[in-house]
Write a structure and sequence with these properties.
This is FliM/FliN family flagellar motor C-terminal domain-containing protein. Keywords: Cell projection, Cilium, Flagellum. A hairpin with a 2-residue loop joins strand 2 and strand 3. It is built from 2 helices and 4 strands, in the order αβαβββ. The chain starts with a helix and ends in a 7-residue tail after the last strand. The chain has helices at residues 2-7, 28-32; strands spanning 17-20, 50-54, 57-66, 74-78. Helix content is 13%, strand content 28%. The relative contact order is 0.16.
Length: 85
């Protein structure tokens, strides 16, 4: 892998990272009927956390948190992989 670092400047390569909370399936009529304070039920529980993806590939799991700054930005804490040593 060190040989590859000489050929490719990986510090300059950017990828888009997406955080998925969950999914649901709705009809167009159901979506158009949504109003403030309505709730969309997703396909996973809060305990399952979020998926961290590059493209369609899940690369890690995480949990939502805040950064504690004055802006209170939304953040994702990376969780350990179960069974990893």
């Amino acid at each position: 892998m060190d040989a590859l670092n000489h050929l490719i400047d990986t510090d300059a390569i950017q990828v888009e990272v997406t955080v998925r909370l969950g999914r649901t399936r709705q009809t167009v009529a159901q979506l158009s009927a949504l109003r403030p304070d309505d709730i969309l039920l997703l396909d996973q529980s809060i305990d399952e956390g979020v998926e961290i993806c590059v493209g369609d590939k899940v690369i890690a799991r995480g949990e939502l948190t805040a950064d504690g700054s004055a802006e209170d930005r939304l953040c994702v804490r990376i969780l350990p992989v179960p069974g990893a040593a």
